[in-house]
Design brief:
Layout (H helix, E strand, L loop, with lengths): L13 E2 L1 H8 L4 E5 L10 H6 L6 E2 L2 H4 L16 H10 L7 E5 L7 H10 L4 E4 L2 H7 L41 H8 L4 E5 L3 H4 L17 E2 L15 H9 L8 E5 L6 H10 L6 E2 L3 H5 L14
Parallel strand pairs: 1-5, 2-3, 2-4, 4-5, 6-7, 6-8, 8-9
Helix pairs in contact: 5-10
């Protein structure tokens, strides 16, 4: 590390293309491609078609989640041991600086970034994804719009195995279903639903057992973290956004979505806004809606 390099703890959750490129030059950095889709339209085959040079592919469904179950939801967090095994295979040690990207809105790569930051490993998300990296000029920083070479590669990168020690998902990072239910009833807590408004209101539900939301939850769709250019809003704008749904200093903030994936986008946006300590409800709506003992709310926010 040179004197001008940021310490790992200072790696911000959201990186612009220049920050991403500079950090990627570090010998202790690992670039991870997390392009993935539930319907299989994106995955390793997308990575092999062209990716940032040196990037390693992480499969969201198998590397970043445990098997689905009615009791734990569609994308439960993997056990600390399974997560550590996946990170070790990807060449990530506990101190590795991880730079993750996808090719859309960051909703896939945010899962990995949040998971790593939750266990103390420095990680950042490329704002604007692969498109931003290409627009910025690729590996050498040359402007793509000027017609200079912009490289992607098709290599299937297999890094040397690293040693990632298992670290528990602590109560400071995750909330249980019971804690989420209690927070929804508490004036001192804010439960955020990161899904689209129509799913929150219960107007439609394409995947889960029942439509609606956790009683007391407020709606802040993860897509609202982005501006018209598809990039994250500035910190001040994000602070205003979350303040509008009741997030204030000292509040107990819990975030969920359909299955604990896109909620990570809100969690990174909260951190970018200066709100620290927000927690993920990992089972999210897929777990809540499958438990018929849990009340379901519908309609707009109270």
């Amino acid at each position: 590390m040179t004197p001008t390099d940021p310490a790992p703890a200072e790696v911000p959750p959201i990186l612009d293309a220049q920050q991403f490129r500079e950090l990627a030059r570090r010998p202790d950095a690992r670039v991870i491609d997390v392009r993935w889709a539930l319907d299989g339209s994106k995955g390793r085959h997308t990575y092999l078609a062209g990716h940032i040079p040196g990037a390693v592919y992480a499969d969201l469904g198998s590397d970043l989640a445990a098997p689905a179950s009615r009791e734990a939801g569609r994308h439960p967090l993997p056990s600390p041991e399974d997560f550590a095994a996946a990170m070790s295979r990807l060449g990530i040690a506990n101190g590795t600086v991880v730079l993750a990207y996808d090719d859309t809105d960051g909703s896939q790569a945010a899962r990995l970034v949040w998971m790593l930051r939750a266990v103390g490993t420095p990680a950042g998300l490329l704002d604007g994804g692969l498109g931003a990296w290409l627009e910025d000029g690729g590996e050498d920083g040359s402007p793509g719009s000027a017609g200079r070479s912009v490289r992607v590669t098709q290599d299937d990168v297999a890094p040397p195995r690293a040693r990632f020690a298992p670290t528990p998902w602590g109560p400071e990072a995750i909330a249980t279903i019971d804690e989420t239910e209690a927070a929804g009833r508490s004036a001192g807590a804010v439960v955020i639903d990161a899904r689209a408004g129509e799913r929150y209101r219960g107007e439609m539900e394409p995947m889960d057992a029942r439509a609606g939301h956790v009683p007391g939850a407020v709606n802040a769709p993860f897509t609202g973290n982005l501006g018209q250019d598809g990039r994250f809003l500035p910190p001040a704008a994000l602070r205003e956004r979350f303040a509008a749904v009741g997030v204030h200093e000292g509040a107990d903030v819990i975030v969920y979505c359909g299955s604990g994936v896109t909620a990570a986008h809100d969690l990174l946006a909260l951190e970018r806004a200066g709100v620290h300590g927000a927690r993920l409800f990992p089972g999210s709506w897929s777990q809540w809606s499958a438990d018929e003992s849990r009340e379901v709310a519908t309609g707009p926010e109270a």
